[in-house]
Amino acid sequence: xxxxxxxxxxxxxxxxxxxxxxxxxxxxxxxxxxxxxxxNVPHFRHRFLKFSFRxxxxxxxxxxxxxxxxxxxxxxxxxxxxxxxxxxTSLSNPTTFNPPLNTSAFNIFGFIYxxxxxxxxxxxxxxxxxxxxxxxxxxxxxxxxxxREGLKWSDGHPLTAEDVVFSYNEVYYNPKIPTGIKxxxxxxxxxxxxxxxKLDDRRIEFTVSEPFAPFLRYAGGxxxxxxxxxxxxxxxxxNNGNLAFISAWGTGTDPKEIIGNGLYRMVSYKPSERIxxxxxxxxxxxxxxxxxxxYIENIVLQIIESTDNQLIKFRSGELDSIEVxxxxxxxxxxxxxRGSYTIYNGGPSxxxxxxxxxLSKMQNQQGKPLLDPVKTGWFNTxxxxxAVAYAIDRETxxxxxxxxxxxxxxxxxxxxxxxxxxxxxxxxxYESNPEKxxxxxxxxxxxxxxxxxxxxxxGNRVQFNILVxxxxxxxxxxxxxxxQDLAKIGMKTDVQVxxxxxxxxxLDRRDWECxxxxxxxxxxxxxGGFNIWSxxxxxxxxxxxxQPWEPELKGWEVSDWEKEIDRxxxxxxxxxxxxxxxxxxxxxQQIAAEQVPFIYLVNGLSFQAVRDxxxxxxxxxxxxxxxxxxxxxxxxxx
Length: 638
Prior knowledge:
Helices cover 32% and strands 18% of the residues. The chain has 20 helices and 23 strands. A five-stranded mixed sheet has the order 18-17-19-13-20. A four-stranded mixed sheet has the order 1-10-9-8, with no helix packed on it. The protein has a four-stranded antiparallel sheet with strand order 4-5-7-6. Strand 4 and strand 5 (142-147) form a beta hairpin. The radius of gyration is 26 Å and the shape is globular. Residues 1-82 have low confidence and may be disordered.
């Protein structure tokens, strides 16, 4: 299961009273804690001065009402009793409730959808999900999935093979729907897609034109959609001729209308505040004793767009879990026992952090370049990208920003991946060396003026913007250091900090210059990064080609090394011998390290703090703390 969202209450008056009491208690806790520990709370003094008399009056009024009812102490004690509810947090709002259209890591789909098969968060082994079993033919070209008997959608409607066929043939394969799912399903050099056929109400046959190593893992993990709810949106268009599906299930849709097949279903959504989920009464899973799972009734996902504010909320007891950032680790570790939580360490994260440049030379319909051709010329110069890689001091970044709680990343695949090519085995690495960076630039025709400012061969000052999302403090801090490191080799940069959804819009428009970004871990299968590395991929950010749903764009150029990576990925999925696959993906890593379309930075260790009342945690960097959410429970007080 993939988790990037969290939150759930009941709409009963009792819950609202508890929520009001909890809010009052929260304000008191934060005020007291901030007063005692204001040096540890950013902007405390500023926040304190802005604490208005209106807010104080409201709190005093609530306080008086509780006293007049004669139950102030009693009710506050009741608020401490753990309900069957967990409260989590997300750094950003979801961008859509429509799974095929999603491009953001901040989504709600891990809570409301299940796959045909699931990945074990500890072992990465595949396990039954909506499908109780599957069979693979001898020639490795067919897989037949058998659905569980009696499956239902969260609205009680039967879930059958018809929904699976609909999801693939009518949605994911639909050329009018802008989804990246089809990227990872394209087979070999032909680019064929698997055929999907209904055998009966419970059995579906997938067929590929040639052996496709990642097929089982992908076919089993893609979200199955409700045909009865979404098919009507494929049968009508808007005034511009776009399918109604493109605007269906946006974040303005009533959450109760969103139909899923997973552990939970949405109850409500307040942008920039919270998303509330309740247990899906039609979910298929039961424990050995026949008790329905999940055990926890409600999930609440608070949207807190700052890691500093998330930390405050967790320390005040308002959150049940938090991702522990390097700058917060020492503080949280000291408070671990008193705060009744445990910090789990899964080792290096499978995520990545990187610097990338926009290599696109494309023009719009009017023939105007999407990016300044002068800057495009710099970015497409190999020596320029390598010089930047040598200029960045990642050892200092690891020690200062990550507090030593991380590892320098050299490749798209992490050291824990069985297909990883190590530096000892020939992977090119970039140790910090500003002088070597300068020499590379000079050899490529760049020059320095008397102020040691870098100029290109035509005398243009080398200056560009660096884009970074605001929600991740460590990434912003890393960007500031990168700015300082590049200044040492004469480059002038301006850091532009935006929220993640605004960044996605700029990436789509291709009007960005440099970006400090990240990708979530794609698991152990290298082909999981196909939509990033394929020149045709929807996430091929550094040289994004025209997409089928976009207005005509001109002048897209694909380099020889990008074409070679395309060839290697096509070869890798056709090869079923794991030893040979490792050689193929090793060559890919060598090319990526030499050409540096992504300059990798530091991979933080995977730390998660979870309240001790949450039982049966099986933590790993691969699955996190809540991959087995269905079997977690909450300890009741003695």
